[in-house]
């Protein structure tokens, strides 16, 4: 069965898209740790990060680098943190999180955003993606 993230790539499930290319896709996390919390995935469904081929892993990291640069340009923060967990959704995803405090990377406190705020964040980050 297709993962929830494969359904996002196909458009079957909506998302606040940041960027995509042939192989990778970036969108806002729906239950963010902080404003601008973004997920970057390979379009090809794979469960665990280190089961990706070296080439696909490198491609995912390169794409994530570009997304992180766009986040930094858009969201005031001390730095962008990166984490890979995957215990909830078995489709590789890189968490890119604007950090101002250690708690922002701890997946404990969540930020509630309106649809308008999600749209504004996605458009802002997307416009800075190079
Ligand atoms: P984990 O698998 O533990 O790395 O966490 C999965 C992440 O995916 C969580 O931060 C969720 O908020 C996020 N998530 C789950 N479903 C969606 C969705 N439909 N759109 C955006 N983010 C999602």
Provide the descriptors you would attach to this structure in a database record.
130 residues; alpha+beta; HIT family, subunit A; five-stranded antiparallel beta sheet; 32% helix; globular; binds adenosine monophosphate
Q: What global shape is seen?
A: globular
Fraction of residues in helices?
A: 25-40%
Tally of separate domains: 1
Count, helices: 3
| Number of E-type strands | 5
Largest beta sheet: strand ordering: 1-2-3-5-4
End-to-end separation: 33 Å
H/E element string?
HEEEHEEH
The name of the CATH superfamily reads HIT-like
Average pLDDT confidence is 98
CATH architecture: 2-Layer Sandwich
Low-confidence stretches: none
Oligomeric assembly? single chain
Give a quick account of the main beta sheet: strands, pairing sense, barrel closure. 5 strands, antiparallel
**Proportion of beta-strand residues:** 15-25%
Instruction: Output the CATH class name.
Output: Alpha Beta
Integer-rounded radius of gyration: 14 Å
Structural class by SSE content: alpha+beta
- Distinct ligand kinds: adenosine monophosphate
The CATH topology comes to HIT family, subunit A
